[in-house]
Specification:
Elements lengths: L2 H15 L4 E2 H4 L10 H9 L3 E3 L4 E4 L1 H24 L5 H11 L5 H10 L16 H5 L8 E3 L8 E7 L4 H10 L6 E6 L4 E5 L2 E5 L1 H6 E5 L1
Antiparallel strand pairs: 1-3, 2-3, 4-9, 5-6, 5-9, 6-7, 7-8
Helix pairs in contact: 1-4, 4-5
Bound molecules: zinc ion (ZN) (3 copies).
């Protein structure tokens, strides 16, 4: 099995696995972009990436799981990069480009992109990005260009790159106040409460909310 096919297959199995149990028929469903062939499934078994029980339930082995996590991480970081930095808006183009990119991202490049983006925890669709070694090591070689608002010092400012909350109500609320990608914000004070300035507005913000707002440091 070639590397790209193996990566695609394990990405599919890992992604389906996030929603619940995975059965053989799920891997061959018509609606999929790349349904797996019987031959590919047998190869994955031979390579000890997956095991299939008599009921047809598919489970990734340790080896399979770590490959799945790696590819999902690359895919979702690529999505973030494409949508936030390259500001590509067409949904299907993001998906397509992310799926191309994920196969050419080396572990180093993956961690560099992760660091550059401030170790994001979710993709533009709100799905989790598996953590990499860079996320816990707090590497300093490459400085993050994007960081969350709560990490700025008083007087620090930046331009909103993205807001990572999945709470739509909160997102609408922030948007209606003028807090959305492109808005320049300045941290006025952090104690006793976090207060930010933007446009003509002064606003006290919960730390939890500030953590969801990611800015380009400028
Ligand atoms: Zn992909
Ligand atoms: Zn996504
Ligand atoms: Zn990271």
């Amino acid at each position: 099995m070639n590397r790209e096919d193996r990566e695609e297959a394990m990405e599919l199995i890992g992604t389906l696995g996030e929603k619940g149990e995975v059965f053989l028929k799920d891997l061959q469903a018509r609606g999929l972009n790349h349904p797996l062939t019987q031959e590919q499934i047998s190869l994955l078994q031979e390579e000890k990436m997956i095991v299939i029980d008599p009921r047809g339930k598919v489970q990734a082995t340790e080896k399979g799981k770590s490959l799945s996590e790696e590819i999902i991480r690359r895919h979702r970081l690529a999505e973030r990069l494409i949508s936030d930095v390259l500001i590509l808006r067409e949904k299907n183009k993001i998906e397509e480009s992310a799926c191309d990119l994920e196969h050419v991202m080396s572990p180093q490049l993956t961690d560099s992109i992760c660091t550059l983006l401030g170790h994001p925890t979710s993709c533009p669709h709100g799905k989790r990005i598996p953590r990499g070694t860079c996320c816990s090591e707090k590497r300093t070689q490459i400085e993050s260009l994007i960081r969350s608002l709560d990490k700025l010092d008083p007087g620090g400012q930046g331009v909103i790159a993205y807001i990572s909350t999945r709470d739509h109500q909160l997102l609408d609320q922030l948007t209606s106040m003028g807090l959305f990608p492109g808005t320049r914000v300045k941290v006025h004070q952090k104690q006793p409460a976090l207060v930010i300035l933007f446009e003509e507005t002064t606003l006290a913000l919960d730390k939890e909310i500030a953590r969801e707002i990611h800015v380009w440091r400028k």
